[in-house]
Amino acid sequence: MIPLPTPHAAYLVFYDGNCGFCSRSIRILHSLDQQDRIHFAPLGGETATLHGVVSDFNADTAIVIQLSDHRKFEKSAAALQCLRALGGIPSCVASLLSFIPVRLRDRFYDLIARHRHRLFSPDHICDIPDSRLQKKLLP
């Protein structure tokens, strides 16, 4: 049985589970998510299948699902949704970045995605997450 996000979770972030940069990004998001509104699952995992993300599987693309209405966000829009979920200053930054045209934001996203394996080694994947993060990691 696949565990479901906790009731106060608002977003589900699907990420490349084999990428050191993505794993590091998840840890940073988790550390900033004081209200535990964001849960995480690897692309291609059981939770992704449950939410119909498998048909969209592309390891270069982060996908965020807003759980209240099941809206799906990809690439730079997914990153902005994560910032909005954090509230405070990150949410303000997301509002400012949303004025940049999507095509330009996504080009920058694609540039980072293409080179993400060089930014952090896969060793970051093997770090054991703290117990609070373990509760937010879905299969």
**Sheet with most strands: strand arrangement:** 2-1-3-4
Rounded average pLDDT: 81
Evaluate the radius of gyration. Answer: 14 Å
Counting DSSP H or I runs of 4 or more residues, the number of helices is: 6
Largest sheet: 4 strands, mixed
- Low-confidence runs: none
Strand content: 5-15%
Terminal CA distance reads 10 Å
Secondary-structure element pattern, one letter each? EHEHEEHHHH
Strands, total number: 4
Outline: globular
Determine the fraction of residues in helical runs and give it as a percent range: 40-55%
Please state the structural category: alpha+beta
Report on this structure:
This protein is of the alpha+beta class and 139 residues long. 46% of the residues lie in helices and 13% in strands. It has helices at residues 20-32, 46-50, 75-86, 88-97, 102-119, 131-136, and strands at residues 11-15, 38-42, 63-66, 71-74. The chain has a four-stranded mixed sheet. A hairpin with a 4-residue loop joins strand 3 (63-66) and strand 4 (71-74). Helix 3 (75-86) packs antiparallel against helix 4 (88-97). The N and C termini lie close together (10 Å). The relative contact order is 0.23. The mean pLDDT is 81.
